[in-house]
Amino acid sequence: MKMMTAIIKPFKLDDVRDALHQLGITGMTVEEVKGYGRQKGHTELYRGAEYVVEFQPKIKIQIGISDERVDAVIDVVCKAASTGKIGDGKIFITALEQSVRIRTGETGEEAL
User: Fold this and answer.
1) Rounded Cα–Cα distance for residues 91 and 6 (Å)
2) In this structure, are residues 81 and 6 in contact, taking their beta carbons and an 8 Å threshold?
3) In the beta sheet, which residues pair with residue 66?
């Protein structure tokens, strides 16, 4: 089992969710986060004062997936989240040692 963590632009969340749903992925955890990378920040004007926004708003999606589905999920997320511009995000895949469905007690891939 693997844990996929994807950091994407906020307005692409619905596209990614819909694409994953078509692949049969129905559950995910979503967080609003801020990030700093190659996109860097930008300057904004507020009440006549200029200030720098260094951290960009992003969405972090986490999904537990079986080993066989990793490549398909990566492909779907890349296609759905891509705008072709800097700051589209990243995907991280890590090993997932165990999963347990609390309601039923199912473990391993059955709990995904």
Assistant:
1) 4
2) yes
3) none
Nearest-angstrom CA–CA distance, 20 and 17? 5
Q: Which two tokens stand for residue 18?
A: 């819909």
Asked if residues 30 and 60 have their Cβ atoms less than 8 Å apart, the reply is yes
Three-class DSSP category at 28: coil
- The tens-digit pLDDT sequence of the chain (112 residues) is 999 999 999 999 999 999 999 999 989 999 999 988 776 666 767 777 777 777 889 999 999 999 999 999 999 999 999 999 988 999 999 999 999 999 999 999 998 8
Does domain 2-111 match CATH 2.60.120.10? no
